[in-house]
């Protein structure tokens, strides 16, 4: 039985969430500025913003992982789906069940909200993450992501 619990983020969780978010940015080779982290943190606590945060906690209550998710329209079906923007578990806690606990909480949220699907992206080089995701989806989708940078 897993000793991991999942909760929504609270204002008191910033000091625990921030280093994990920085670790996530480091993994993807992105510089996370204080301003960007503070902006994301404010979104997570703004009831008018779509972004929501879940935290995985170990048996002692320490934050060991997070997921950022939001509602996203799915025009071809006329439905709203979930979009998982970020998922991260600290390297010391990988294999602890934290990612599974976060996915269980995401499934619960999807069911509560009537989201028929949750989508997400990951980098090609994220082999460990992809192996985890394949356990839930069977394989990556046949979609290709493009990114058009506005300069």
Parts with pLDDT < 50 across at least 5 consecutive residues: none
Domains, number:
1
Major β-sheet annotation: 5 strands, mixed
Order of helices and strands: EHHEEEHEH
- Output the CATH class name: Alpha Beta
CATH topology: Aminopeptidase
What would you call the shape? Answer: globular
Strand numbers in spatial order across the main sheet: 1-2-3-4-5
Helix content: 25-40%
List the total number of helices.
4
Record field, number of beta strands: 5
Question: What would the average pLDDT be, to the nearest integer?
Answer: 95
Report Rg: 15 Å
How would you name the oligomeric state of the polypeptide chains in this document?
A: single chain
Which structural class do you get from the secondary structure elements? alpha+beta
End-to-end span in angstroms?
A: 50 Å
Strand content: 15-25%
Write the CATH architecture name: 3-Layer(aba) Sandwich
CATH superfamily: Gcn5-related N-acetyltransferase (GNAT)
